[in-house]
Give the backbone structure.
Amino acid sequence: MKDGYWLVGFQYEVTGTLYSLGRIPQCKVAMLKHLQPGAKILIAGVGHGTEAIEASKLGVHVTAVDLSRTMLDHLQKRIDKFRPPTPVRIVHDDIFNVKEFEQYDMVIGNFFLNVFGEDTVPKVAQHLSALVKPGGHLVVGDFMLPEKGWRGWLQRLNWYLAISIYAATTEAVLHPVWNYAGLVEGTGCKVQEIQYFRILGLKLYWSIRGKKPG
Ligand SMILES: C[S@@+](CC[C@H](N)C(=O)[O-])C[C@H]1O[C@@H](n2cnc3c(N)ncnc32)[C@H](O)[C@@H]1O
């Protein structure tokens, strides 16, 4: 299986944390508060799995999916280190090959939809939504959609700095910031909550929770 992160995967979590002054890891775990022990969640494009470990500590059953062996090896090292109480199921595959439809209380795609181009991203969002149980949650954490005025230029700068590096070193595609709230709504999930993560008052990341009709 193709590993788009073989070159830069090792530093992904540390760099993201430093780059965002800790906001990216906060964004990744923001919606776990809605989970009860025993809930089933799937994390698409899990990477090093900050939210997978935290969810497991809450007694949640986590399925972690990623195409990259490098990323999953780092997740496994963290599992070995933190020994979370509930086992994390690791699936090394393309998310489109996961066909456990309507099985999950929550499906999370953190900084995942941003790797896809304009034609593919709605299909990926739709697939994630199809994995959510009726009445369950689809959660997307990512770069903030640029606002109007000077704030928007700083938000764009924040995105283009990051994507330029990853488009050059991985299979991520260079593109404008997608409207992640719109993508969630486009799957039929109704947005219930948005949490913003700011630096000096500027919204740079957001976590969006949509609810699938019951
Ligand atoms: C930008 S990284 C984000 C990683 C992690 N979610 C985070 O926030 O740190 C995107 C991840 O999605 C994975 N990925 C990309 N396309 C995928 C696909 N079609 N199926 C499963 N994982 C995929 C990549 O291997 C990578 O680990």
